[in-house]
Amino acid sequence: MATVIINGKTSSVKDGTLILDAARDAGVEIPTFCYQADLMGVGSCRMCLVEIEGQKKLQPSCITPVMDGMSIQTETPQILKARQGVLEFFLSNHALDCPVCDKGGECELQDMVYKHGPVEGRYAESKHRFHEKDYILSPVIVKNSNRCVQCLRCVRVCDEVVGRNVLASLGRGHEQEETSFLRSRLDCDHCGNCIEVCPVGCFMRLPYRYKSRPWDLKGTDTICPYCATGCRMVVEERDGEALRARAQIGVGINSETLCARGRFGFDFINDPRRLTTPLVKKFGKLEPATWSEALDFISEKLSGIEGERIGGLASPVLTNEELYSFQKLMRSTLGSPNIDSSTRWDPVVVENYIAASAMTSGGLSVFDAAEADTLFVAGTQLSDENPIVDYIARRISAERGTRIIVASVRDMKLDSSAGLSIRHLPGGLGALMKAAALSLYESKKDKLQGFAGVERFEGLSADVLLGEAGVSSDELAAITKRFETSATVALTAGTDLLRQSCGILALGLLSDVLKALGKEVLILPILDRANQRGAWEMGVLPGLAPGYRTASKRGLGTKEMIEAAAAGGIDAMYVIGEDPVGENPSGVSAFDALSKLSFILVQDTFLTDTAAMADCVLPGAFPAEKDGTFTNQEGRVQAMRRLKAPPGDARAYLAIIASVSGVLSSTTGVCTKTNSMQVFNEIRKEAPAYAGVSLEFNNRKNKLNKLDNREALAGASEGGFTPVAMTSCAPAAEQRGEGEFYLITGNTLFHSGRLSHSSPTLTGLQKGAALELSEADASALGLSSGEEARVQGNDYEVTLPVRLRKGMRDGVVYIPEFFPGVSVERFFTTGVSLPVVKVKKS
Amino acid sequence: MLTDKVREEILKITAKYYNKRSAVMDALMLVQKDCGGNITRGDMEDIADMLEIKPHEVNAVATFYTMYNYAKPVGRYHIQVCRNISCALLEAERVIAHIEDTLGIKTGDTTPDNKFTLSTAECLGSCGTAPMMQINDNYYENLTPDKVDAILKGFE
Ligand code: SF4
Ligand code: SF4
Ligand code: SF4
Ligand code: FES
Ligand code: FES
Q1: Which of A297, A461, A838, B25 is found 20 to 30 A from A395 (Cα to Cα)?
Q2: Is B123 in the pocket of ligand 5 (CB under 6 A)?
């Protein structure tokens, strides 16, 4: 600890604290430009100068650490004069075109000059102009260098946090310009973090340019609806049109960062094709109806059907309150146990995943995982699927030396921060983790006498496992060595484990061995739908009631419901926000199956393929149009607020569920709550893990930049549950013949599911799907980048343009999930997690 | 495009450093010498490729140091007249004006026969012999208009 005196007041801070941080902790504000928490200090702008007793020259407080006994002044006449000088210097070469600048009104330079600036400038010479017109750097970024203050925040964020490193500072002196290689178009992540950190109007959002002034915008705190990282953001609107999304420094785990989906993908809200009125099928055609007509129709149709013959499917992008109310409506009001939240995952696999990833023991902060001695990133294409977790891992590993191991089939951005990158075979992750567990066990057998579940090692051979994983014994040794020398090991449980159920058992085994060796093991689930964890914790699963309690009666999962529909086992379905028909799950055609039902009720924001064949369609609302909470993958429960009303007659799903329950139940008040806080209070009782959760922090700017609000993490679920045993894990890869490839799938950086395809900006960033394969495979097939290939398998065929990928394993091809016109799911046969497809040049 | 000779030299130099990227300044200098005194976009991309860095990082170095000529084609003889304080006090301006008159070009330009390019430089570290100039790799010191005439004649 060091004792410092700031403006005469004594305080005590940790050794090595920057003067700036010490001052801010003591409540003394020092103006800055180039300083940004979480970025490496450069000390280039000199805005933060302070006086240190005994030193003649003023010192930059943002890069000078305190020393014991230091006496610091922050407001002397000399400092005030220096600040004026710095600002006069900035303005001497500044465009001063505030009236047309997007940043006007929220510009740090404007604010600083207003507060600390000189009254007039003395510089009379001509200014350097970098260019006349703004230039476009990417489909989402437009640049005006004439406004730059050379703080280098853009360059640093792109390199240190995003990890893309595509910006540099070109030239020197007053000609210094932060931009791309020769100002050419960027081929980057288009995340817009360079825009967010720029204190002035140099980096600007292209879709937002000249659309509004900040004071005309009305904003609200909400949560990104894409992946389950749970980034906090503010969405802003003007005249009913959502215009901008931005992150705030010090708010949420993401602080000032977002990925392209979060920052630019909110514009689906403005889509003119959205549903604005209830629709009821009359004479075979969906016709607009009033709410009371629609509700009467539902009551008439549904009340005649036995509860168990109704299926319920709700999207994992609904709020906890909506999901909770929906399961209550299904289970209590209608008396149906058939309820699920995904068209992709098998509920039994999900239960085992929940158990193996220790979700029942409560929330785990992503920062704890990133600060472990070793972080094993597996089962996820993290850099594309959950970009902000990638940022956090990169930043923290650089700061604290976390050792990162990336185990994946394809290369990813995080490889550059990983000391070790393993490219395993598709479907081989389970084998790799088992091999690691086995090798740790064998080498420490004496220490592990009495290891519970030792029978799990029976019949395992390292050589066979390594063969299945496609990993060398040297690579395995490198992994286990890192594990052995770490006191804390964090393992990610990505969505690939839900596709490859062998991996779940292996994850359990590996974590048990590590624990037996006395290591602290942290398992961080990595999920790709905003409220997937919430959906499970709210009991939207056929076997689990809210709070991970075993359901009193086990119902059907999505796939079984569709099979039951085809076989006449159920009569009706109630679907919210999901599109089983459009999303084409494997097995029986969902369209044929659902056609057999006597009643289909759909709540959605768009007329999906499922909605188009429904008997009644009710128009719903997006996040930003409703209140509620999401639980992110860490188990962090966060509130979001309503910005504007949904279009036309559309209503929040919670209100709709309440109305439907209202007309269906004779006993009023069963689950007719429409206020999300009331429902949340009920959730606190039903799911005790949520009892102590604080939603407090969520709407407030956290001054001390402490991003990790642990009170928001869910607690442990009492009792827990025993998952239904997986009879066998999915069979290993089929043998692959000449011209055949293993097919893998997943999200891309710009698209994850149906929602992103309704965003014009994201569609502009990536329109169609492409087939990714290694350079060697492409050349063997005579294919080069951009040419088209025909992919066949499982009686399905698509033609796709080809994209070469350097870090891809040979023999593997990748097609993204959920692209319009490409039903990659159709290549998958139930029970076979790793399909083989034929690829030909077309 | 880098010639094979330059590639070889760059490779040799990278061996001297702890990591490849550190050789970027030497690489730029070698390329500039080899390619008629001017660095192009393609050169920067090639250097980035060889040193396993990004083209914009080469771009940043090439534009930071004034002695790299990026996208500034120069003639066979590149005249750089110092105009910093010592030289300025000893009438560097007169030397510059004299060269402009003699060659019939303005500072920053190249003669139509592509023989000379005239530019100015900041202190070249030879203040004791001011005013001075550098032509390609050589210094010419204690300049007077007559001396300049003789020097330029020497390049006929
Ligand atoms: S958009 Fe993101 S990746 Fe692209 S330059 Fe800006 S910070 Fe870098
Ligand atoms: S462009 Fe913006 S962020 Fe980048 S150096 Fe200039 S002022 Fe700073
Ligand atoms: S990382 Fe996930 S939650 Fe965060 S902005 Fe991107 S898609 Fe949204
Ligand atoms: S904020 Fe300290 S030098 Fe810029
Ligand atoms: S000022 Fe000309 S050489 Fe130093």
Answers
A1: B25
A2: yes
